[in-house]
Amino acid sequence: MKYNRVYLAGPEVFHPRALELAKMKKDICAAYKLEGVFPLDNELDVDSYLLKHQAGLAIGDANEKLIQSSNIIIANLTPFRGPSADVGTVYEVGYGRALGKRVFGYSNVPQLFESRTREFAGGGSTAADEFGMSFEDFGMHDNLMIETGIVRSGGAMITRAAKYSERFTDLYAFEQCVQLAARDL
Amino acid sequence: MKYNRVYLAGPEVFHPRALELAKMKKDICAAYKLEGVFPLDNELDVDSYLLKHQAGLAIGDANEKLIQSSNIIIANLTPFRGPSADVGTVYEVGYGRALGKRVFGYSNVPQLFESRTREFAGGGSTAADEFGMSFEDFGMHDNLMIETGIVRSGGAMITRAAKYSERFTDLYAFEQCVQLAARDL
After folding, report:
1. Candidates A60, A82, A143; nearest CB to B88
2. ipTM of the predicted assembly exceeds 0.95
3. Which residue of A has its CA nearest to B84?
């Protein structure tokens, strides 16, 4: 495990400019003497697998190994296709937390979780969603497990109101996480 | 750590009949000689905290301890407020996986992840969402990190087409997970 290695978790892997965003994040890390590693660094030949299910497992294995080799995670927890963060990223936050990694999170949407979920369920004053299920309200940015993991790991959660169209490309809050991570080393 | 203790992860904590569902799950576990533990078992006095944020962290801490004390996780990964599973549950899957727990997952929606996310983004033939971001397609039930963690832990992912209104209360697939978990002990 390298003590200055940062696993760059986030839904950017699905972005058409994923590799460009990865390079920008790595460059920011390097400016603070940190080494950023990105999920797509694995260089797996996805097409070599007979079944796409097997390719998926191989990517998952490779990402877990990358997290093991890092001591810091900086996770893009911007709401993704719904009121919460990308679940792949959230899995990695939990995984890294259990391994004792320091986890930082950022979101380019500052609206709190309770407000976002209520809005998603269709109304400002509704007390529950269509299944009667309540809205978590602990003044946090997403489900309490995520923010607990981040805080208890010694990391921090940073939010910023980015422009809607730049929600998945704005790296200002990301850089703030990098600054905090570098300061602690 | 108890070798027959199962952490019952899932969004049921938000359900109006949460404690009843917890009891039903525990009874099913007991029928297979397993001990089910539920997040709300913590018996925290949430109102005793000055800030709700502190109460949230205390719940998170307590849930992590419950997972540590278990050797199996059975996670309800039914899509919750969007195309993916509840992120609190997903965090716990990643957390438990990193600690070497055996993780089983179930979903009461058998539609595959790629199809669900495409539908959520608004169209059957669209290649990307409004941010240009692609749809993961590895023939899995949710993000590949989740299913990789489950498969590599020695667990299994089970799906079932429950009635829409019973999506968060149908325990048939849950019981199948319990059967598999009990058989392996």
Report:
1. A143
2. yes
3. A87
